[in-house]
Amino acid sequence: MSKPIIVALVGPTGVGKTKTSLFLAKKLKGEIVSMDSMQIYRNMDIGTAKSTPEERAAVLHHMIDVADPHDRFTTADYQTMAVHAIRNILDRGKLPLLVGGTGLYLDAIRYDMRLGESKANEEIREKLRSIAQQPDGQNILHAMLEKVDPETAAKLHPNDIRRVMRALEIFEISGKTKSQQAEAEKREGMFHGLVYGLSLPREMMYARINARVDEMMQAGLVEEVKNLLALGVEPNQEGGSMQAIGYKEIVSALRGEITLDRAVELIKQNSRRYAKRQWTWFRHDSSMRWFDYTEYPDREALEQALLHQIEEDIKQYQEICETDQWSNGKR
């Protein structure tokens, strides 16, 4: 039985997904569904590298500015809202183009996953909270998770304390890793997903990340953080919006804990580490087709090759479905 087609464009932060996704959406008569775990928040534009108003006017975007930065937004929340958006796009005869670097969000759409949390163990949580409150507690917890569940650790930033603690708690309670449980719970979803990845050599990608952080600072990242604090957004909330890379470091600078120059260094360093974790996670997906910028003379050539591959894959899937329907009807 044929399923609606969705196309996903993924890759590490700073690799160039935004421009390429705009090109693809225009050529494929698509609409973009963001898969960025921080672009969901309103008033957090510069530090999350959101598409510009002009870019969003050229191509309709979904799952951007859908949550208040005061609120906690879960993967289950994303799944519910994104699936609704995708169905709406399909109903209007458009192609959903999922774009971003949050692997958990991609899995939530591709698979029929149960995302409700099992019963918590308060004793274990209290122990983990006490570790989190220690100097460098976030990195200590993340290192603990890397030892028992490296696959989940690769998906999570150390600042995402809530999810890191939850993954450790699951292992403590069940003896199974979160990734093992998630793999066991994966069931074929309601969409046929075609997934493509963009890549660059590490040195080039890191240079682009560093340059983008400098651009964010020039664009007013410090003022954006000040405005969020003035709105009462809690900077220390576990798993909260202000724990994102770029925001947490600027908060430390505003408090006088570090210099602004040091904050910028940390943003670049943490962004590079995050990109490495994203790369590691996406590389485990054997169904993904990769497109490396260095294999093409320029961006335009890569985009044309990617467009051609997507069109061929869509055509092939449709032909297979038509053949199956004909065979079933003949029987």
Describe this structure in words.
With 331 residues, the protein is α/β, with parallel strands linked by helices. 56% of the residues lie in helices and 9% in strands. The protein contains 14 helices and six strands. A six-stranded parallel sheet has the order 3-2-4-1-5-6, sandwiched between helices. Helix 2 links the parallel strand 2 and strand 3 (61-62). The radius of gyration is 21 Å and the shape is globular. The two termini are 15 Å apart.
**Strand residues, percent:** 5-15%
Structural class: alpha/beta
CATH architectural arrangement of the largest domain = 3-Layer(aba) Sandwich
* CATH homolog superfamily of the largest domain: P-loop containing nucleotide triphosphate hydrolases
Secondary-structure element series: EHEHEHEHHHHHHEHHHHEH
Distance between the termini: 15 Å
CATH top level label of the largest domain: Alpha Beta
Radius of gyration computed on alpha carbons: 21 Å
pLDDT < 50 stretches: none
CATH topology of the largest domain: Rossmann fold
The total count of helices amounts to 14
Number of domains: 2
Largest sheet: 6 strands, parallel
Shape: globular
Quantity of strands, as a count: 6
Helices and strands, with pairings:
Elements: E1 5-10, H1 17-27, E2 30-34, H2 53-58, E3 61-62, H3 75-91, E4 95-100, H4 103-110, H5 122-132, H6 137-148, H7 150-155, H8 161-174, H9 178-185, E5 192-199, H10 202-219, H11 221-230, H12 247-254, H13 260-283, E6 289-292, H14 299-330
Helix pairs in contact: 1-14, 3-4, 5-6, 5-8, 6-8, 10-13, 11-12, 12-13
